[in-house]
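::Encoded backbone::
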Amino acid sequence: MRGFTLIELLIVIVIIGLVFGIAVPAFQNYRSSQTFDQAAMDVEETLSVARNYAASNVDPTNPAAQRELNSAGCLSQTADFVGYGVSIPASNGSSGNTTYSLDIVFTCPNGGGSYQYYPVDNIKWVKSLPSGQNISFTTGSSSHIFFPFLNKTPLSGTITLQNNQTPPLTKTISVSAAGVISMN
């Protein structure tokens, strides 16, 4: 009778263990990379939606937008819708920012004529990044990228996404003064 010896079985088990030891971390890095790439594409899509809404001169005068104006104290005054933007809230601690939103942008007299940003709640375009991903603006002091109506110059900027794996993956999404969105 011919069978496998204990040494042969141990060698096969060690080889299988080595293959799993190499394949599992590589697969986890691949999944993390794919999740990160999808998150970056979602941010780029949100910027494109803001640009396209502004280019179409769609004025968000609907009940949801009116509620936003009322909460800003502009309902009894003349609010001027000026476009759409993407906002990233102030950092939420050491973990960085993990949410961003598509906003209506308007000015109202009691706001000193400055831009006011409020989420477009009828679209429900407040998004969260997957776990382990952070988002931030890296140029300028603004936390907004703004696309105005009537082909005026947008508020340009650069958004950086970074994940928490080692070494960290980083993607940069830039919006030029001409409104061109690029990712690298």
